[in-house]
Amino acid sequence: MLASICSSNPGSPPCAHGRWRAAPGHRGPERRRHHAAGAAGLHPAALPTRPGPVNTGALNRIFALIQLIKDSKLCTDAIAADLRITGGAQAAPDFNTLAPEFTVHLTAAGVFLDWSWGGYAAFLDMIELQVDRNDGKGWVPLAFDTRPATRTLSAARDAVKWKYRAIFHLGDERVGLWSNEASILVGG
Predict the structure, then answer these.
(1) Per residue of the chain (188 residues), what is the pLDDT tens digit?
(2) By CB distance 3.0 to 4.6 Å, which of 20, 100, 177, 188 could disulfide with 166?
(3) Where do the CATH 2.60.40.10 domains begin and end in the chain?
(4) Would you tell me which CATH number, out of the four given (1.10.3720.10, 3.20.20.110, 2.60.40.10, 3.40.720.10), belongs to the domain 102-186?
């Protein structure tokens, strides 16, 4: 019987749960179950220690190392492919079909235009945003922006529907198509 060997042979190594004898109050089958559970490794494992703090700039160090590897004369295309540190060149957008996409939301601070480069930031310089405030002036410039997301203040007293549209710029020239119009009810 394992329990009796463990507890009756003080010269033998301790059982899996580290005790020479069963805890007081364990008698008969309870004692054997206690010992068998310990021998089977069913005791809860200790939690791992918390990892230490990481120095800031970890990604910068990784990118610097990747650039060092790529600049090395010993780095071949095959090595770079195995390390997965080369990417395919992104194709330029088709400027005949490219049009910005954005959404319009009304917030407490005003109208919020949520736009992005659509993955083509490397090929574009800015976005031109226009607004039609339904005041008889038609489309007027709102912003020439280089950072996605634009806020405008709504100054309408009466409820009125404002419309927005956008087009990308490359240098000082418009490229692509005008976006679909987005409208929102402001004021009132």
Answers:
(1) 444 444 444 554 555 555 545 455 555 555 555 555 555 556 677 888 888 777 788 888 888 898 889 888 888 888 888 888 887 777 889 999 999 999 998 888 888 899 999 888 889 999 999 999 999 999 999 999 998 887 777 767 788 899 999 999 999 999 999 999 999 998 87
(2) 100
(3) 102-186
(4) 2.60.40.10
For residue 37, the SS3 value is helix
- pTM value? 0.54
User: What residues contact 57, with CB distance under 8 A and at least 6 apart?
Assistant: none
Sign of CA dihedral 63, 66, 70, 71: positive
| Share of the chain residues as helix, strand and coil, in percent rounded to the nearest 5 | 25, 25, 50
Give the pairing of strands 102-107 and 173-175: unpaired
3 state DSSP class of 107: strand
Distance CA 173, CA 141 (A): 15
